[in-house]
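Ticket #4471: structure export looks truncated?
Reporter: QA, pipeline team
Priority: medium

Steps to reproduce: submit the single chain below to the structure queue and open the exported record.
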Amino acid sequence: MSIEVGSIVKGVVTGITKFGAFVELDGGESGLVHISEVADAYVKDVNNYLKLNEEINVKVISIGKDGKIGLSIKQLSEANKKTKFTQAPKKSFDDMMSDFLKESTEKQQDLRRSLDKKSGNIR
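Actual output as written to the record:
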């Protein structure tokens, strides 16, 4: 099987490190999915996204002169998003926490107003 930059191929995760995952491709060649190419979100631990011996699809993003093959899962999912559907952007943890705190504060204020009306302490 001839591997070319831009092609989408199947492979099996053969090793996981702090910096990425090694994938054996159909045809016996191996490549690396760098940690920055694992997912759209920040990846602290590759083990949270991939498991040993897991079969995955990857996109070939580079082939070095030394024969090293660079792979991406993230770019594969980006291509799928463009062709299949448009997904709303994910909120960061800080944005979600800010929304939660705002909603919580509003609910507490409503509850206080309701309790004050019932007890006769109208504000």
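Status: closed, not a bug. The export was complete when the record was re-opened. Leaving a note from the reviewer for reference: Strands lie at 8-17, 20-25, 30-34, 55-63, 69-72.
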